[in-house]
Design brief:
The complex is a heterodimer of chains A (309) and B (430). Chain A contains 11 helices and 9 strands. By secondary structure, chain A is α/β, with parallel strands linked by helices. Chain A has a 5-stranded parallel β-sheet. In chain A, strands 2-1-3-4 form a 4-stranded parallel β-sheet, with helices on both faces. In chain A, 48% of the residues are buried. Chain B has 2 domains: 100 residues, Urease, subunit C, domain 1, CATH 2.30.40; 307 residues, TIM Barrel (Alpha-Beta Barrel), CATH 3.20.20.140. Chain B starts with a strand and ends in a 7-residue tail after the last strand. The chains are: A alpha/beta (309), B alpha/beta (430).
Chain lengths: 309, 430
Amino acid sequence: MSQFNRRHLLGLEGVSQDEINHILDTADSLKEINQRPIKKVPTLRGRLVINFFYEASTRTKTSFELAAKRLSADTFSLSASGSSITKGETLIDTAKNLEAMAPDLIVMRHSSSGAPHFLAKHIKPSIINAGDGTHEHPTQALLDMMTIREKLGRLDGLKVSIIGDISHSRVARSNILGLTTMGSSVCIYGPRTLIPPYAESLGVEIASSMQEAIDDADVVMMLRVQRERLEDVLFPSLREYAQRFGLGVRHLAKAKPEVLVMHPGPINRGVEMSPEVADGPYSVILQQVANGVAVRMALLYLLLSPETK
Amino acid sequence: MSRILLQGGRLLCPASGLDETGDLLIEQGSIAQLGGEIKADDAQVVPCCGLVVAPGLIDLHVHLRQPGHEYKETIASGTAAAAAGGFTAVACMPNTSPVNDSRAVTESILETAAKEASARVYPVGAITVGLQGAGLTEMAELQEAGCVAVSDDGRPVADARLMRRALEYADTFGLPVICHSEDLSLSAGGHMHEGPTSTRLGLTGIPAQAEVLAIERDLALAGLTGAKVHIAHVSCAGSVEAIRRAKAQGIRCTAETAPHYLVLSDEDVGDYDTHFKMNPPLRSSQDRAAVRQGLAQGVIDLVATDHAPHSVLEKEVEFDQAAFGVVGLETALGVMLQLVKEGVLDMAGLIQRMSAAPAKALGLKGGSLTQGGPADVTVIYDGLAWKVEPEHFRSLSRNTPFAGWELPGRAVLTICGGRITHRLEKDAPC
């Protein structure tokens, strides 16, 4: 019997294999609701979910909103611009004000690593981390794992290669934690400037070439390269980045025949990934988006539904 | 001023080699007599059997925050905290607002201290005007006004040529320079030690090399100029090695570390606890071992707290927004007694590193028990276990990494210039 007794989902660090399986099983069963003509169940009627986004986001925020609506929870969104945050209110004050509105759960994105952990220490509602700084983005990793499991039928014994800006990627960190917990091996590759110091302490292999990363891979996960990293002189130009660290069709020749190509979005077409790959047969990027809603429904359900407590 | 007789304690003065059971009589703010059995009618008698009677502890690295940041600490509250922790003297860093870069600021600190302080206050002046790293301060005048050293604490002088000039100019007047050695370009953007924990937490790291490089530079400049430098808050193995080499080459330098670097490590940051955020940051456990060894061997001369009070406004925030620094005056002795318990130092070694060595490093009075010398005395009860409860601190700030710790002992009596500045009513153990 799987158990899920958490109050928060702050990250995948410390989340067990059983718990991950339970979340993904729940997501699988809830996914069907999205195919119905009437895409709504009353499970979380009367519950209040606040989407608290300190940092801009389109797909994650929309995905959470949709997930809450499909389960009939009330929901509203608060973003940094146009709120009292721009008037100098501290995070703790904003959080306590939100708490006073009696939400059951707060979905939080913030540019500071650890911000949801800080909030969880100071306020009562459940918190889901929707991305904190360069730390974790657990729901993205869960939807990635759901997609991999759906396509390849398992999450153990796979070789998953994550390529690009690992240092600043919360998606990479959560995927590394989740996938290694599930029994797969994770390989990372990118310019040394974008590989975190002591990366091996995360339990990953560090590839020495693009080809080494991709050979025999079951999954290739490409990360978005952000233009501000260019300003921080972490690599010389987008041109050289695209040539050396961008994924083209030619790279995939030596991967497993059923290799999956993933990307957390939004893609810089022609930089980390060629258009042929993004739109090609290996790409499951749009399934990732669809599964995102199901995974977030599962988490809202598991954290809020009284019968799961 | 009344006479105080400390009766039957272990008189322990590493500077003079004194270590025997006996009495100590304080009269007119001075040590009138020490050793053996002393008769003193009408003196206030304090039984000290089983207690250590030591020279008053001296802390070379304290932020008193006044003028400018009185909501964090004042000269009155900071020195009350010092007295409670067994300190009879503190050197206060210049990064106040306004910066202590002129006679007027130094004098105002000393005037306030004369009225309100519970410990001797030794101001440290800035090396550059406004800590801006551009022009030198009027060091001769700062010294005349009462500054015992100059420092760039918190805002290191990045320009090597300017630092060379500062060392030479300060040396003209025999003024020691306290170096906050940090390569700001390498540490930029960092919030904790660069290691597996920073990678796990997704926080930008500060590599130990940012400290080592800067210490190497400052020691090289000390060698070049012949000036005396004191290296502040040594936190890592590479720094200990750099100082060891410099001393072997005859470079005039002393060095300090802080209690937190001796007992904590970067892993203690846990889940983003801002009470473990300071600069330099808590390093790896290997660094901690090297700093312990360096202190035991005398490569690191002394212990200073880097007492850096901050309010909840600076600490109850996101980790990357939080200010660097922890308070230390009220826990330092207890933490050091823990190290004695663990066998890192013996009691005489501890007292030496917290009294004689700091006095010697900056040429301050005190640091010893001497007949006719100032009656700066700390009575220590080793074995009086206590729990650190920040809500009971004399300091205005609570940002300690040691909340809830059980420490094996503390100061039960602090006397500064013959005046009792702290007393904990506890019966002596025998």
